[in-house]
Design goal:
Blueprint (H helix, E strand, L loop, with lengths): L23 H5 L12 H4 L28 E9 L10 E5 L25 E5 L5 E7 L4 E3 L5 E3 L2 E6 L8 E6 L18 H5 L4 E2 L10 E4 L2 E2 L11
Parallel strand pairs: 1-10, 1-11
Antiparallel strand pairs: 1-4, 2-3, 2-7, 5-6, 7-8, 9-10
The structure holds fe (ii) ion (FE2).
Length: about 230
């Protein structure tokens, strides 16, 4: 049986393993050459899910507690596409983010900013037959980190996708257009190719903006191929 693989990734369009301005990449990056693993059935297949198995609350991060979270409500939606621009249906899209004050609900996050009892910051959706997903959430805050002196992360939402197979797994971060911290962010700058890293910035979207209610942002994700969304390193 001949198995169709994937086209190789274009140089510079994915983050470098070693990017010294992102300090933890120095210890994390491999010191030996990578081993190429042949694609067999277990690499090019994976689980598929039906959207009905997920509670509607899972994709609305403003409805997971008794009250609404503080901050500006937003809608984040988009499509998941494969390397041939075909929609990827029935795939899990997970997100996690800081609250509007820039604080994660996690014991490791000790930033001096308030937690919000009405915001957990985790969401889950399954793409429909057109590869579409949609979340309602609040705009996350910027937060400081210890990478260098006076280091601040731009507003971002973490994304994790499985895609149709184990080799299309994508973990990445979505940014917001016009954020002044983006050009200074060592994680964003890990990807050398400017056009590729700009794929991580969502687009403000009138089409999904709801009058008198919430602004919409569009973030399409492309799994593998020339236009692939850069991974997080
Ligand atoms: Fe983060």
């Amino acid at each position: 049986m001949t198995l169709a693989g994937f086209r190789p990734i274009y140089p510079g369009t994915q983050p470098d393993h070693l990017h010294p301005p992102y300090v933890s990449s120095v210890k994390r990056s491999p010191t030996k050459p990578q081993v190429r693993i042949p694609f067999t059935l277990s690499e090019i297949t994976g689980p598929s899910f039906q959207p009905e198995i997920v509670s509607p609350k899972a994709c609305d991060l403003t409805r997971q507690h008794s009250g609404e979270p503080l901050g500006e409500r937003i809608i984040v939606s988009g499509r998941v596409l494969d390397e041939n621009a075909r929609p990827v249906p029935n795939t899990v899209v997970e997100i996690w983010q800081a609250n509007s004050a820039g604080r994660y609900r996690h014991e490791v996050d000790q930033h001096d900013a308030p937690l919000d009892p009405n915001f957990t910051g985790c969401g889950l959706a399954i793409t429909n037959e057109r590869g579409e997903y949609r979340f309602v959430t609040i705009r996350p805050g910027e937060y400081p980190w210890r990478n260098h002196n006076n280091a601040w992360r731009p507003k971002h939402i973490h994304f994790s996708l499985f895609g149709p197979s184990f080799s299309t797994r994508l973990v990445t971060q979505m940014y917001f257009p016009g954020d002044p911290l983006i050009p200074f962010d060592p994680i964003f700058n890990c990807t050398a190719d400017e056009k590729a890293r700009n794929r991580l910035i969502s687009l403000f979207d009138w089409e999904t903006t709801i009058p008198d209610w919430a602004l919409g942002y569009r973030f399409d994700l492309i799994l593998r191929g020339r236009e692939a969304t850069p991974m997080e390193k």
